[in-house]
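Posted in: Protein Modeling Q&A

I'm a second-year student putting together a small comparison for a lab meeting, and my supervisor asked me to include a predicted structure for PAS domain S-box-containing protein. I've never done this before, so apologies if this is the wrong subforum. The sequence is pasted below exactly as I got it from our records. If anyone can share the structure token output, I'd also love a short note on what stands out.
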Amino acid sequence: MHAAAVRPTGVERTFDPGGIIVTKTDLQGRLTYANDVFLRVSALREDEAIGKPHNLIRHPDMPRAVFGLLWERIVAGQEIFAYVVNLAADGAHYWVLAHVTPSLSPAGTVVGYHSNRRVPTRAALDHVQPLYRALVAAERQQGAARDAVVAGRAALDTHLSTAGQDYDEMVWALAGSQGW
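Accepted answer (user: helix_wrangler)
Welcome! Here is the predicted structure, written out as tokens:
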């Protein structure tokens, strides 16, 4: 299964608000661990997930610019919280509030990445979904993937500047409704 081969069905899936999706990847983003919540929600078996690129669950309506920001942060050794829509193997989609961090060796070098994901509030999604649609629309006007990331990032930066926030401030303002 690969996300490019799966068509979105429009069916939204969620999971227990007390549950946490956990995955770990190597430095190239290949899954090295996936908990049972991830496997159930993504409709994948462990043998279909482990060793595969984490982007196998990438939804086509997820802005490349947000993933660009995510990779920029974690490669620099920083954490990030981000709203993400994923595509399950059966075509359903599911939203998460992801917390992605670098995994460090005892010597302090980055050896992979760790992500915990929770169910976001509907209020947060009501804000994020139109923003992400606008970012994806800007990205789809470009021919090359790199140009799409640049266009999406420019649209994101414009939105955030207008709101007087950076991405982290936006996420935390929306996550505040979750009691974080």
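A couple of things worth pointing out for your meeting: The domain at 21-177 is CATH 3.30.450.20 (Beta-Lactamase). The beta strands are 21-25, 31-34, 80-87, 93-104, 110-118.
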